[in-house]
Specification:
Elements: H1 2-10, H2 12-38, H3 40-69, H4 71-103, H5 122-146, H6 156-181, H7 197-229, H8 237-244, H9 248-297, H10 305-322, H11 326-350
C-alpha cells in the first residue's frame, strides 16, 4: 500500500491530466451522441457513404476520360506506372537476396552505430502520451474560444494543420526533456546521428524498395476483399485536405509538413523513444510488433492498418539494424512523398 501511495503522490500531476483527458473524451462522446439524435450525424455519414460508392464506380471511367483529354497527364501516369513497375521488380530482387542470406544463415550487417540500452522507460512514454493528449485538448479549447476573433479557425484544413504543427513541436520538446534533460542522455541515444549519413540513406532506400512488393501484395488482397464485401472505406482527413484545398501556399506547407517534417518527428517518437523503451522489457521482436501496431492504429482506418503496420515493422527493423534513425526517416519520407504525389495526381484527374 505504501508503494501505491508513493506512486500516486509522485505521479499525481499525470493522474490529474489523465482524468481530464478521460472527461474530455466522455464529453465529446456525449456531444457526438446528441448530434446523432438530431439526425445530423446520421445524415452526414450517409452522405459520405454515398459519395464513397459513387467514387468507386466512376473512378476508372473518369480517369480514362481525363487521360484521353490531357496528354501530358497521361504521359505522367505512364512514367509513374513504369517507375512503380521498376521499383517492384527491383524490390523482388532485393527480397530474393535477403531470403537467400536468411536461408544460408548469414547475418545482414549494416550497423553504422551501436544501439545501447537507454535509461528512460515505458512510464516515461506514458507521461509523454498524457502530456501530448492534454495539450491537444487544450489547443482545441483555446481555438474554440478564439474562433470568433480569428475566423480562419473555422477552416477545418487550416485548423488541422495548425494543431498538427503545434502538437508535433510540443511532442519533440517532451521527448527531448525526458531523454536529454531528465536522464542526461545524448541525442545519439534517440538515434539522431549523422555518422555514415549517406550510407544510411542508401539503406533506407533499399529497405523501402524491398518493402514495396509486400505492400503491393497486401494492398491487392485488401482491394479484392473490399470489392467482394462491397465495403466503402472512410476517407482520410489528410487526403481530403489535399484533394479539396486550393490555396497554393497552404498546400506547399502541408506537403512539406506531411512529407518531411512529420516523418522526422514520428520516427523520433515511435522508433527513437517508444521502441527503445519497450525493447528493454519485451525484447526486439515484440517491441517491433507493438510499436508498429500503435503506429498503424494512429495513422489510418481498418483498411490501411495492415500495410501501415508492415511499414512500421520495416522502420523498426532498419533502426535496429543500422543504429540510427536516418534510414527509417528516409523510408518514411519516401513513402509520404509518394502518397502526396499520388494524391496530387488523383486531384488532377478530378480537376
Amino acid at each position: 500500500m505504501t508503494g501505491i501511495g508513493y506512486f500516486l503522490r509522485k505521479e499525481r500531476l499525470y493522474i490529474l491530466l489523465l482524468v481530464f483527458i478521460i472527461l474530455m473524451n466522455v464529453l465529446m462522446g456525449i456531444s457526438d451522441e446528441d448530434k446523432g439524435k438530431t439526425g445530423k450525424a446520421i445524415d452526414f455519414s450517409l452522405e459520405k457513404k454515398k459519395e464513397g460508392i459513387e467514387d468507386i464506380f466512376l473512378k476508372r471511367e473518369e480517369m480514362e476520360k481525363v487521360l484521353r483529354q490531357k496528354k501530358p497527364l497521361a504521359m505522367l501516369f505512364s512514367l509513374a506506372s513504369l517507375l512503380v513497375l521498376a521499383i517492384l521488380s527491383l524490390g523482388i530482387v532485393i527480397d530474393v537476396i535477403l531470403a537467400s542470406l536468411k536461408m544460408s544463415k548469414k547475418t545482414l550487417d549494416i550497423q553504422t552505430h551501436k544501439v545501447k540500452v537507454v535509461r528512460w522507460n515505458v512510464l516515461d512514454v506514458s507521461r509523454v502520451v498524457i502530456l501530448f493528449l492534454f495539450f491537444g485538448y487544450m489547443v482545441i479549447l483555446i481555438e474554440s474560444a478564439l474562433i470568433g476573433t480569428f475566423p480562419i479557425l473555422k477552416n477545418d484544413n487550416f485548423r488541422m494543420m495548425l494543431n498538427s504543427s503545434i502538437l508535433d513541436v510540443l511532442g519533440v520538446i517532451f521527448v527531448i526533456y525526458f531523454t536529454v534533460v531528465q536522464y542526461k542522455e545524448d541525442l545519439v541515444s534517440l538515434g539522431l546521428s549523422i555518422k555514415n549519413f549517406f550510407k544510411n540513406v542508401f539503406y533506407g532506400m533499399a529497405g523501402y524498395i524491398a518493402t514495396v512488393p509486400v505492400l503491393i501484395g497486401v494492398l491487392a488482397v485488401i482491394v479484392l476483399i473490399i470489392h467482394l464485401t462491397k465495403y466503402v472505406p472512410e476517407k482520410q482527413p489528410v487526403v481530403e485536405l489535399f484533394l479539396k484545398e486550393e490555396n497554393a501556399p497552404f498546400l506547399v506547407y502541408s506537403s512539406v509538413f506531411a512529407a518531411v517534417v512529420g516523418p522526422f518527428i514520428e520516427e523520433l517518437f515511435f522508433r527513437g523513444f517508444m521502441y527503445n523503451a519497450f525493447k528493454k522489457y519485451i525484447g526486439i521482436f515484440w517491441a517491433t510488433i507493438f510499436t508498429a501496431g500503435i503506429f498503424a492504429a494512429l495513422h489510418t482506418n481498418i483498411v490501411g492498418f495492415l500495410p501501415i503496420m508492415i511499414l512500421g515493422i520495416t522502420l523498426a527493423y532498419l533502426y535496429e539494424k543500422t543504429g540510427t534513425l536516418v534510414s527509417s526517416i528516409t523510408v518514411h519520407i519516401i513513402h509520404n512523398l509518394s502518397m502526396v504525389f499520388l494524391i496530387f495526381l488523383i486531384k488532377q484527374v478530378k480537376a
